[in-house]
Amino acid sequence: MLRAAPAVGPGGVVYQAVKVGGTGGALFAIHPDHTVEVVELTAPVNGGVFVTDSAIYFGARDGSLYCYGHDLVRRWVVSLREGADILTRPGFDGTSIAVGDGDGTIHGRDPATGEAVWEYDALLGRSPSGVGLIGRAGVTTGPTGDMAIGDALGMIHVLTRGGQSRWRARVSGGGTADGIVASPILTATRAYVGAENQTLTAFALR
Length: 206
Known about the structure:
Elements: E1 7-8, E2 14-20, E3 24-30, E4 36-41, E5 50-51, E6 56-59, E7 64-68, E8 74-79, E9 91-92, E10 97-100, E11 106-109, E12 116-120, E13 131-133, E14 147-150, E15 155-159, E16 165-170, E17 185-186, E18 190-194, E19 200-204
Antiparallel strand pairs: 1-2, 2-3, 3-4, 5-6, 6-7, 7-8, 9-10, 10-11, 11-12, 13-14, 14-15, 15-16, 17-18, 18-19
């Protein structure tokens, strides 16, 4: 079952992690020549994958963060919080892989080893969205490393590289009807975020 968008890696290879049945998952690599590689996973994946020049990262419903090479060989797996599903896509702030668990903690992990670097727990009980990284997607000024995360009560939170709070703002009235369930989109000067109340809000970055 597909629940998140794929990601494109080096050489135009498309990576997609999916849920299979009730308790399993799979990671696919789809090459430009239409050949497909697949590896079975032991837990369902509902969030998207994040691909760097050297690795693939994703969280799973078992509360673990996984790292695979582009050859689909697993490099490491770490349990973030027992019983806390990971339902969103990770991000990269230039030094750490950042991902939110279902309880509301944002984890910063070493991309090479999975070891803990920092944690941000001010979103406990708010079901964070995927992590957006400021400066991605063609911004000529280059990445700043700041991160943006939405929550289930309609707040956008911007964190510095290293997981410190920079600022936060409410998208609209607040409450579950205004929840943010997808990663914000960021440029060097603006944050764009959509909410479940069908609004799209742009914030000037501070």
